[in-house]
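Both lines are retained for reference:
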Amino acid sequence: MSKNIRKRVILLSGAAVIAIGSALAFQHYTYASAQPTEAPVVTPAIPVVVKTVSTDDVMIWSGFSGRLSAVDFAEIRPQVSGRITQVRFNDGQSVKAGTVLFVIDPRPFEAALAKAQANLVTARTNADFANTEFERAAALIKSQAIAQRFYDERANAKRVADAAILAAEADLKQAELNLDYAYVKAPISGRLSRVEITVGNLVEAGPNAPLLTSIASNEGIYADFDVDEQTYVNTIRSNASTDVEERKIPVEMSLQGDSARTYKGTIHSFDNRITTASGTIRARARFSNKDGRLVPGMFVSVRLAGSANSTALLVPDRAIGNDQSKRFVFVVGPDSKATYREVSLGQSVNRQRIVLSGLNAGERVIVDGLQHVQPNAIVAPTEASASSAQGAAQGQ
């Protein structure tokens, strides 16, 4: 009897466990069926600004380093000997040509000038007397009143007297020059250096004459730089065959530490040979210097334009990405997918780069939003306006 009870209890317990499990399974199924099904994740298109690249006529520029030099420069030395009595300028002063800078004691030269003037008067007086004697002898020789020898002596005396006038005039001119040299003048207009020899010192003319000061013109200035042979042949000589055409080549210059300001000039000359040791040719450009800010000896950066425009494919600088040593752009195709494209670039032109390979005219490249784009990403492109593209090119 007890065994039957135990079996019944076990059977009832098993049935209860099965019933509870079935209820829980039904409840879980009912809850899961009631939950909504999750939709697949859709990545939104990335908004970007694109620009359609195209070819254009551009002026190719090449960069070089150079130094400034004065158009005219003179070292001022004494042309007569004597003691300096006056200095009539201040260090660094700008003067006009002909301005008196130093005075060398003029009294000895004034005395020499007075003596030369007196000698000239004497020579002219002697010449007048000799001429009178010659005319008298010429009249007498016709009537055979005097010997031929006497006539010849009078003629010779006249010639000597005339020559003495020429010598006296030359001495007078030299005396005038020496007196003028006693007042040392600026040979050109420009800015003076400092006073090298002060008042009271004796100076001597000649090959070892001391330096009094120097002067550099400020009416324009030269920039001297070296151009490599390839640039000279490919961009200059191939299109500018004469010096007149060379002088039309534009040049831009900026000072070290002042790249915001650009000075514009033109080529003044190229040298007549290429230096074999360096493979370069010396070039010289001329710039205006009305405000006097440019000083000889300054280190400058020079940009030399080609002598003719070239057709090139241009891409904005901001469209270019860096991948270690590689340069790339993202090209947006008709399917609005951004494609990674490695490019080979040339020189910079107005904040754009010349594309040597990797792009074709008419393709669209991303110029804004580049940092948010990955290869093969879906983008929402907007074409850059002409005004914004121009402003970016000009750095505005």
Notes: Residues 389-396 have pLDDT under 50 and may be disordered.
